Fold:
Amino acid sequence: MTAVPASRTGCSATPAAPRTRLSIWRRRPLLGTLGSLVAATAAAFAATVGGGVSAASASTHDWIATGWNIHLADQFDPATARHFFNTSSSFGTGPKASVNPVTNGFAANAVLVYDSYAQFASDIQGGAISPAYKWILYDPEEWSQTPVAEQLNPIKYLTQFGQLAHAHGYKVIEAPGRDLGNVARSGSACPEQPGETLDHWYIRCDIAGAAAAASDVYVLQDQVNTANLAAYDALFSSARQQALAASPRAVVDSELSTNHGTASQMAAAAKSVNADGFYVSITSPAVSRADQFFRLMRAAGY
Structure:
């Protein structure tokens, strides 16, 4: 996801410029799509993960957005925003350990976002996290907020983050960026291969499996492929197969963004995959496009 002046399209927000994104993407030419892999599904995949998140059903999905974006959506179209986010199966994210990001009386779970395992460990040690938080999200990416050591060895830190959070009673969402492949060179635990696309690197290194094994909800940052359904489906199917192989009861979400595709393209991508839920990245100027997307999804029975 790409940084914008008024927001950061994904997981958390700052006081002056609410963060409305999960990831920064460095574009690479597509050298070929991943081979389509049919996702293996568990027959009894209807269990509830703490906080009320139901896994894969035709009508029940979890929805994730920043608390600030949920607030903006509620101002723009209250009925639609409440349909998706005034429910205990959904989530509102934020970056402040002392402040609940979910406002307007919504029932969505408050989620504290971290880009850095080191910062999370420090906050745990210092007792800085508000009791309002039962869920913690780890979003390592190729950006300055994630320490280089964590970028170079995402599997190690995805695992350690989940272990530390669970040991302190938190539920965990992990959403590693595929742009971590951009730093997978010298010193990387899973070096990039010549000519490899980010999608290929992500699957070859089993980032999805590591994240799913360490978390309660895994989010695939697939939004850059939104306008190309074949690529969106191929990456999601492969990542979901790996996630379920690592954790058969995994809740596997996919991401969409107002930075990638029209409302109709976002809806088509969402409906094309067997996701348990969706992280919706919204830039503040694109609230109306997000509302159109949500209306399309609601009309489709979501």
